[in-house]
Automatic annotation (TrEMBL), chains A, B:
The organism's taxonomic lineage, starting at the top: Bacteria, Pseudomonadati, Pseudomonadota, Alphaproteobacteria, Rhodobacterales
Assigned keywords, A-Z: FAD, Flavoprotein, Oxidoreductase, Transit peptide
Coiled-coil spans in chain: none
Protein name: D-lactate dehydrogenase (cytochrome)
Organism: Phaeobacter italicus
Protein's UniProt keywords contain Transit peptide: yes
Length: 467, 467
């Protein structure tokens, strides 16, 4: 685990860039301490490293102007959406200019006949889905937080629906982006598929603002299913629950969501969200399809669950009950923090082949217990991805060291199981050594791409790569 | 349309590299004219540009050795699979060493519980599916030709099943590749999803051997559906058929295949494959699901088709009839060539947003008729992708010029409709100017990536980019 290291600051360049940008952008640029700190990293344990100024552009042309100014003075540029990333993505370790994209919040075009939409990067997923609802369409990626779509693309976000609908890499058709030299590019046309040259769309998706700044997204949409049914099922152990998940995926049941909560996180959810769930390991599920189809899927799942001792299976097709359940799932991060008021949450994010899931989750639980760590666990288990949220007193050097040890141990375990240290949160500042551990020499070629596209290393420096 | 331009040859380097490789690889390296020409471009109108030698490695380590030798001498390296690409991908415009991957044809590991498989690049899709059948699994991407999986990844292939299962970009989990400096990398772990750094997997998929040579693939698999049903439906016009496709996609019917044949290509199929299909525009479809589900899907499609004057709807669940139908579809390229014996086929490959499909296909037909070109049309219309196969007497300068004009006109039309000049065949030698036309300045950043990863431009030079 890397504490937020500080990089050398180009003081003269930063001052000059701010002068130029202030003259050009006036009140669109802010330098007050509070606003700067709000734009440093907020939702996690990582130290806040505030930028020197925050600018609020309204168009790709303005973003390009800002980047050109910063390039001229060798000053870092950090893109910002809703600030809900968990790995220090929006910190400014070398200072610089934060570009807050949230004034670029327009839905530019919906093409219902093509099942796609064109949006600015500051549009949030809830804003988009509210807008689309009347047309019977929705955008399926749901990381929990009401994140901006630009930020979700930049971090290759996924979440509860990914088991059925994929991640951001599968749902972005094309991007407009401002590159390190200020050039504005379009990565692809609007056709559903293409073999036209290098896949710049997917190179930018997940590049965490280090290769280009996303200024427009063309996203694939889905029709709202005829029927949606949610269900929950209790298990005697996390191991049994994981085995039921493995079998469900192997049988090809097209679950739209299949989420694990361990007993501790169920307790947190009950307390925070006023629910009355049985405080044992639970799976929460959602099925999408025709009226008959969702019942068939629920029944198939129930048969599998029973083989693994699943009990207390409850299914519902009411929107209200369903919303309450998923809202509780989405609020889990905040709910778990309440298990130990004052503690910070450090979330792990390993993802392993589904055949190794039960083993990995069980080992992670046992290790946390051994080490005396309070660590509720939840997971997008249909993808083999789960999170342990370590609740740590950051004033205790001993606890910080323990958390360090645990995170490193779990990342190594996942990597040894052909898994990854990050299923969906990204590398950011925190996981850079683990990326090298996971992919070895491949990071050398990633660095070559970074150097080719951003030779002065001004785009979100200190993230992803150790350079 | 670009004729295969010749690039400057490094004669001394080529001779030196062949000497070194011959000493190391013995009979694994061949320099006979016939074998060299077989490894130049074969299936299309583009002039054959044979490599200077063909080498048959059996491992990534051997590929790495070959690339290192070629790098040392500044000699081009051209990867080769089954040679079924259509845009001059395997030509050697500057000479050099062809690396034939077909001795690397092992299926290394099947993980049924994870729905994935690890293969060498010379495994063909039919070989893989035959191997998997007993386990109830299949690999869904089907470009028609029995192509190698390495080649399919390199060209981002898709084909008839893409409307449901996506393209190679969606079905490759991870790659092992040899880079221009001989380094061997692994792009990702085997987990189903990851946010670990730049998406090197998808950067290599579709890079046509210009950024790295694929030496191993981890592929996603699907369970063989409980039921498969195929159907055909006749229409009075291509326009009506396209409108039925648009509506089918918009209704979210999860068709596994939805293919258009115009009257001319139906005639070709009847003659070549001994069928008795009505010689009018046809849609061929396939539905995957439960026994009840495929009937429901067929009925939903039939209702839509009837709205657009569809008639003579015939559906079947027999494997034999289905195979016959799809074999005829797969043989279409060869069937169409028989419409004009001695002619060469030049296939267009535009792909447009589905809302523009009917308009684009109709315009393409009208233009071919206007210009007096014999051009049967078939299409993966569920993706908005279709092919006109221009049957051209290559000895006639007038016909060649007409074909040039037509291809350029159609690519421009598709681009003006927010579509692409290539849905699945790739850029290769033939479409380089259109890539620039389609994506403009974006190609400059693609060139920067190419220069960073292959500074000596030894990996498949003269493909994708005009450099």
């Amino acid at each position: 685990m890397v504490q937020a290291t500080t990089l050398p600051r180009n003081e003269a360049g930063i001052a000059a860039a701010i002068d130029t940008l202030k003259a050009r952008f006036g009140d669109q640029l802010q330098t007050g301490q509070a606003i700067r700190e709000q734009h440093g990293h907020t939702t996690t344990w990582i130290t806040n490293q505030a930028p020197d100024a925050v600018v609020f552009p309204t168009s790709a042309a303005e973003v390009s102007e800002i980047v050109k100014t910063c390039a001229e003075h060798g000053v870092p540029v950090i893109p910002f959406g809703t600030g809900t990333s968990l790995e220090g993505h929006v910190n400014a370790p070398a200072g610089g200019i934060c570009i807050d994209m949230m004034k670029m919040d327009k839905i530019l075009a919906v093409h219902p006949e093509d099942l796609d939409v064109v949006v600015q990067p500051g549009v949030t997923r809830e804003q988009l889905n509210t807008y689309l609802r009347d047309q019977g369409l929705f955008f399926p990626i749901d990381p929990g937080a009401n994140a901006s779509l630009g930020g979700m693309a930049a971090t290759r976000a996924s979440g509860t629906n990914a088991v059925r609908y994929g991640t951001m890499k599968d749902n972005v058709l094309a991007l407009e982006a401002v590159m390190a030299d200020g050039g504005v590019i379009r990565t692809a046309q609007r056709a559903r598929k293409s073999s036209a040259g290098y896949d710049m769309t997917r190179l930018l998706v997940g590049s965490e603002g280090t290769l280009g700044l996303i200024t427009e997204l063309t996203l694939r949409l889905q029709g709202i299913p005829e029927a949606i049914r949610s269900a929950r099922c209790a298990f005697n152990s996390v191991d049994d629950a994981c085995r039921a998940v493995m079998m469900t995926i192997q049988y090809g049941i097209p679950v739209a969501r299949i989420e694990l909560l361990d007993a501790l996180s169920v307790r947190a959810a009950n307390a925070y969200s006023g629910l009355n769930l049985p405080e044992v390991p639970l799976l929460l599920l959602e099925f999408h399809g025709s009226d008959a189809g969702v019942v068939e899927q629920t029944d198939m799942f129930a048969s599998i669950a029973e083989e693994f001792g699943g009990f207390d299976i409850a299914a519902t097709s009411t929107a209200e009950e369903r919303s309450k359940l998923w809202q509780a799932r989405h609020d889990m991060y905040w709910a778990c923090l309440q298990l130990r008021p004052g503690a910070k949450g450090i979330s792990t994010d390993v993802c392993v082949p589904i055949s190794r899931l039960a083993e990995c989750v069980s080992a992670a639980r046992a290790k946390a217990e051994d080490m005396g760590l309070l660590a509720p666990m939840v997971g997008h288990v249909g993808d083999g991805n789960f999170h342990a949220l370590l609740l740590i007193d950051m004033d205790s050097a001993e606890e910080r060291a323990k958390a360090d040890t645990y995170v490193g141990w779990l990342n190594e375990l996942a990597i040894s199981m052909e898994g990854t240290c990050t299923g969906e949160h990204g590398i950011g500042q925190g996981k850079r050594p683990y990326l090298t551990q996971e992919l070895g020499d491949t990071t050398r070629y990633m660095a070559a791409i970074k150097a080719a596209l951003d030779p002065e290393n001004i785009l979100n420096p200190g993230k992803i790569l150790e350079m």
